Amino acid sequence: MSSNTDFVLSIEDLTVSFDGFKAVDKLNLYVDKNEIRVVIGPNGAGKTTVLDLICGKTRATSGSIKFKDLELTRMSEHQIVRAGVGRKFQNPSIYENLTVFENLEISYPKGRSVFGALAFKRTAEVVARVEEIAREIMLDEFLGTEAGLLSHGQKQWLEIGMLLIQDPELLMLDEPVAGMSARERELTGQLLRRICTNRSVLVIEHDMEFVKNIAHKVTVLHQGKILKEGSMEMVQSDPKVIEVYLGH
Amino acid sequence: MQAFAGVSLFSVFVLMALGLAIIFGQMGVINMAHGEFLTIGAYSTVMMSMLAEKFMPEFLPYYFIFAILVAFVVAFSIGYLVEFLMIRHLYRRPLDTLLATWGLSLIMQQIFRSAFGAREVSATLPDWLMGSWQPVEGVDIPLNGLFVLGLTILLSLAVFIFLFKSRWGLKVRATTQNRLMAGAVGISTPMVDRVTFALGCGIAGVAGAAFTTIASTGPTSGSLYIVDTFLVVVFGGAGSLLGTFASAFSIAQAQSVMEFFMSGSMAKVLTLLAVIIILMIRPEGLFSVKVRK
Amino acid sequence: MYFLDKARDALKRKRLVAALGASMLLGAVSTVSAATLPTAQVNTTGLAITDSTVKVGILHSTTGTMAISETGSVEAEKLAIDQINAMGGILGRKIEIIQEDGASDWPTFAEKAKKLLEKDQVAAVFGCWTSASRKAVLPVFENDNGLLYYPTFYEGLEESKNVFYTGQEATQQILAGLDWASKELGAKTFYLVGSDYIWPRTSMKIARKHIENVLKGTVVGEEYYPLGSTQFGSLINKIKLKKPDLVFGAVVGGSNVAWFKQLNAAGLTFKKQPMLTISVTEDEVLGIGGENVEGLYSSMMYFQSLDLPGNKKFVDAFKTKWGADSVIGDVTESGYLGPWLWLRAVEAAKSFDVDKVVAASPGIEWEDSPHGYLKVDKNHHLWMKTRIGEWQKDGQVKIVYESDVIKPDPFPAGYQ
Amino acid sequence: MQVAMNKLFGGREGLVGLAILAALIFIIMPLTFDIFRLNLVGKYLTYAFVAIGLVLCWGYGGILSLGQGMFFGLGGYCMAMFLKLESSSPESTKIQSTPGIPDFMDWNQLTALPWFWEPFHSLSFSLVAVIAVPCIFAFIISVAMFKRRVGGVYFAIITQAIALILTILIIGQQGYTGGINGITDLRTLKGWDIRTDEAKYVLYFLNGALLIGCILVGRLIITSKLGRLLLAMRDREDRVRFSGYDVSSFKVFVFCVGAMMSAIGGAMFTLQVGFMSPSFVGIVPSIEMVIFAAVGGRMSLIGAVYGALIVNFAKTFFSESFPALWLFLMGGLFIAVVMLFPNGLAGIYTSYIKPRIDAWIQGRRGGGNLTPTVPAEPQDPVSPRTAERTPASAASRSLAAGIQSEPSRS
């Protein structure tokens, strides 16, 4: 057990099956403190399912997911979030009818209970924190804008900001740069590097340039199992990985 | 004997639920006026019976078969019209559909009342539908019950073949599973929707015709069944025809067995309660497929 | 067809007025002109009465589930009022009807009753059908000192100064019927079946006491089904199992139809399984179909086929006004009594004041009402005969038994 | 203080709207109507409690309950039980075989008061029960449903079925409940005759005050973070969940609030009308109450009150003049509101009337202190933005809360 505590996240023997189809099969995965880990793999490899399992959206058939000392498989989604796991969805999931400010404010980790929310006040502290995060995600000029009017890239940033304001220890991002322009991609890369201090980040990404840019370590998933794990160079030169990607 | 009481309740439930299973289960439309389509079928049958009596009494023994067809056609056409005028504008707002169709049911009830009067009416049954069949002494199987059961089986088979064996059924299933894609491969999805909805209504009409053999027809007859019917479909797992049968069977048997041991009111309360509690434990209903959500 | 009927009605109504003159001499009612009795004298409580008119209310459900049942009562009440007007009205004043719809909803009944009494200041109200609607309006009538003629057989247990009950209370309908069944059919075992609400439950309670304490029989089953139920398979099986000498039924409304159709289909013809009901009148049979009730017994004070001079006139007038196809049930006839009893009381009191009308009512007799002799008791219910009718295929009954005139007893000692 | 004012009254516009409503209830209607009509208005206003509750649950929370009649009924029954016991003193019921119990129990051969009736001898217990019983009931239903993520249409159907069960139960257990007749003939409250004109005036004003109170509570909720969360949940339930909120507990809360408001309405109904019957518990009245909210505008608390008033006035008027027409009209209203005016009167006000008033005020700026003279239905503080977008958001809501019991990732 002592080894587990060194990791922020340790997944052991994780399996989930849908009607007999094993989307994730006896998976073992460990993420270090302050590590940026990128998960890659072909379509249907089970990448998103792994994120779903960690954040409690999908229930595991067997196996364990430990976040520090907490067993996540038995916790409900909001408890997992409160424990310090944040998750960004593949498509930007923000409140399009609220302003950027309100989006961030709702994500501010105070007043999370029913009566807490009733009594919640917009104090100077809240405003300061929202503005700080907005600067971080380059949206400080859009605080009053309705979120639905932002560009696709800005929406992705906003969702990252909504996670940041909660200051999670483990941040999970599902394809954060999909659909972004080259310039936005670059900015997002910088943003990720800025924010990964003091927290671990688990990223799913297809864009190899981007992965190379940010990853400390890369995990290749294939058919619900780990195919290869290691540095980007190592993974890229692995014949099995090449075969899977090129389809031979 | 008692088993047949359950079976005949089962056929009633299936008849009611079949149309709704298509409309609600396959299309996801909440049609609160479903009961009124049933009433349309029942009134059509009553009209046919009166016409037969007035103009060709010698035809009386056979009119019922035609009445079923007429009931289907009338309910189908009205369903077609309703879909065109109302439902198609509301596909993306199920809760609103619920309210609008409730309004429709009020209007239809008042139309029945104005056209046929507030009193209950009854179709004259051909003689071959009256009385009972005695396989052994002391056991009477009601003929009308048998008839309804037979009709239920026929209709279920027809629906099954339609949905799963015919080309049109394939289009319906394709549309419900992926509307965009279905449209992209050249299926006219609005047309599919309209016909599917009308078909569900038509089946309700047939159910209404069948009901005239066991109950009477009044402006509000249909609305009595609506909650039961929805529960049957939901309990079975919306989208699964097999589930609808299973749930109709289990609810019918449970209710008729309990009726045997306690008062009708309590049996009904306990059955509904059991259904709701099971639904709370298993919200997706009896039959449903686990998929990656 | 209903539209057609209505059009026909309109034509007939014209002829009716002429026909009425001859057939209207129901009892020796003295006609008094307004001149001899000025309004100030006959109306000291501010009712809506002028020298030539008097307003009354009709309060029934014309929409909703109860419309089925209440339509007949409205028709009968309107017929009686038309006839009274054709005779010259009441104390020389024509009756004007204000009709309100209770919409099968009890609070609406209370609201409309209030409107009739407080806004329209009607001199009397003919209406209500279900007990629930009567219970809802009762405080209104007592509070505003209104006058209600209630036209339905009901469970009894009520006696209000402001209400006259022109139908039977439970004992009048039940006891004579059970006595007859015990004597004529030799019934010893009984199965009680009813819809689940107060009237059947109270009636069955009285029936059970009578069976157990007076007839020394046994009740082998007692069942209630929710209003509107249409599935009676299990109940029919239970009856088949217990084989009672008599099924005593009080199933109402749409359930009735399903109940008899299914009984019949299950092979329980009334020859094999005698059954006596207190809830089936000609109105119900219209929906059930005569072929499904052939051989069934009903216990009522009135049947359309009663061979009485008063009834002949009533049936003729009713058919002239509402169409030859109309049928008249017990409750419809009770509705017809209301305006006539009010007329007699008003003429006796020479006043429309509710207190005076109420005071003049007890003791009023009517020899040739459609169901024969009747008398208003001090408890505001009617003395009347009870008949047992056996249903025929054509939807009418053959009267098989007629009781003596029975005193109304809304709070029967020993039956509570 | 300024913040609190804004929260409660929704700024100047909200305050004006509330003031107009209050003036209508407390001044205009008592002056124009006699006590008969006023009592009717009082009755209609009790439905407005339910409609306000529905605005919170349905408009904001996205939870459509077709069983609000249950809570209205339960609240009403709790009140009626107290009043019935008071009017069933041993002296006034001495002709019964068991004096001192309600008359319908005596008819059903009960010889003693059932245990659950006993505490209703106490007024304070009864008043607590009026709120607590429906609230506990709502809590049980909603916890069971929302923890299992049953939502949208399924929730609507199941609440409907529960309403049906409760109706059958109340009718069937007539010895304990009064059956289909309900609990009737209620006379006094602590010796105070509730049937007199004077009492009716007092009850009317009490009713109005409670209604305004409920609107203020509703405002407090929708202007708080909780209100924003409800809206956020309605559109993106998953995001709220993955921001660390226990979504079900918020739904449970708002559903219970709706139930409590309905219950207060029910209790006030009993007091003003003088009886309570199972005909309020069932499906039909429950759906009618939804239409009150829909006509007023499902996002507007004040609109709900106007919705209840207007629909009921129309009902009374049409059923007096054209009884057969009423159901056509009611049915047509359902369809028209849903298809043409999804935001009800409040929506019509914001898109058609408000711009004119604004223009008018603009035009006469400097012309003095102006308030609109017509009793219009101003928007609630959060609504202007939400109101305009509802047709679209209704779609996304239904997708989020829709057919699947769990949110789907598409």
Tell me what you see in this structure.
With 293 residues, chain B is mainly α. Helix content of chain B is 70%, strand content 1%. Chain B has one domain (11-222). Chain B has 11 helices and 2 strands; from the N terminus they run H-H-H-H-E-E-H-H-H-H-H-H-H. In chain B, strands 1-2 form a two-stranded antiparallel sheet. The radius of gyration of chain B is 19 Å and the shape is globular. By secondary structure, chain C is an alpha/beta fold. Chain C folds into 2 domains: 2-167 and 308-383, 3-Layer(aba) Sandwich (Rossmann fold); 170-305 and 388-406, Response regulator (Rossmann fold, 3-Layer(aba) Sandwich), CATH 3.40.50.2300. In chain C, 43% of the residues lie in helices and 20% in strands. Chain C contains 14 helices and 14 strands. The radius of gyration of chain C is 21 Å and the shape is elongated. Chain D has a two-stranded antiparallel ribbon. In chain D, strand 1 and strand 2 form a beta hairpin. By secondary structure, chain D is mainly α. Chain D is 71% helix and 1% strand. Classes of the chains: A alpha/beta (248), B mainly alpha (293), C alpha/beta (416), D mainly alpha (410). Chains in contact: A-B, A-D, B-C, B-D, C-D. The interface between B and D is large, with 45 and 53 residues.
Q: Summary?
A:
The complex is a heterotetramer of chains A (248), B (293), C (416) and D (410). Chain B is mainly α and 293 residues long.
User: What is the number of E strands of chain A?
Assistant: 10
Which chain pair has the greatest contact?
B-D, 45 and 53 residues
The percent range for strand residues of chain C is 15-25%
Average pLDDT score of chain A:
86
User: What composes the largest sheet of chain A?
Assistant: 6 strands, mixed
Cα distance spanning the termini of chain A: 40 Å
Number of helices of chain C: 14
Shape of chain A: globular
What radius of gyration of chain A results from the CA coordinates?
Answer: 18 Å
Find the CATH superfamily of the domain at 2-94 and 168-246 in chain A. Answer: P-loop containing nucleotide triphosphate hydrolases
Order of helices and strands of chain A: HEEEHEEHEHHHHEHEHEEHH
Q: Helix count of chain A? A: 11
What brief labels describe this structure?
heterotetramer, B: 293 residues, mainly alpha, 11 helices, globular, C: 416 residues, alpha/beta, Rossmann fold, 2 domains, five-stranded parallel beta sheet, elongated
Ordered list of secondary-structure elements with their pairings:
The complex is a heterotetramer of chains A (248), B (293), C (416) and D (410).
Chain A: H1 2-6, E1 7-18, E2 21-32, E3 36-40, H2 47-55, E4 62-67, E5 70-71, H3 77-83, E6 85-88, H4 100-107, H5 114-119, H6 124-136, H7 152-164, E7 170-174, H8 182-195, E8 200-204, H9 208-214, E9 217-222, E10 225-230, H10 232-236, H11 239-246
Parallel strand pairs in A: 3-8, 3-9, 6-7, 7-8
Antiparallel strand pairs in A: 1-2, 1-4, 4-5, 9-10
Helix pairs in contact in A: 4-6, 4-7
Chain C: H1 2-23, H2 39-42, E1 53-60, H3 67-86, E2 94-101, H4 106-119, E3 125-127, H5 131-144, E4 148-150, E5 163-165, H6 170-184, E6 189-195, H7 198-214, E7 218-225, H8 233-242, E8 246-250, H9 254-265, E9 275-277, H10 282-288, H11 290-293, E10 297-300, H12 309-322, H13 330-349, H14 354-360, E11 365-369, E12 372-376, E13 382-391, E14 397-406
Parallel strand pairs in C: 1-2, 1-3, 3-4, 4-5, 6-7, 6-8, 8-9, 9-10
Antiparallel strand pairs in C: 10-13, 11-12, 12-13, 13-14
Helix pairs in contact in C: 1-12, 3-13, 4-5, 6-7, 9-10, 13-14
Chain D: H1 2-9, H2 11-32, H3 35-60, H4 68-87, H5 103-107, H6 123-147, H7 152-172, H8 174-177, E1 188-189, E2 192-193, H9 197-223, H10 225-235, H11 237-241, H12 247-273, H13 283-296, H14 301-321, H15 323-339, H16 344-363, H17 383-401
Antiparallel strand pairs in D: 1-2
Helix pairs in contact in D: 1-2, 3-9, 3-12, 3-13, 3-14, 4-6, 4-12, 6-12, 9-10, 9-12, 13-14, 14-15
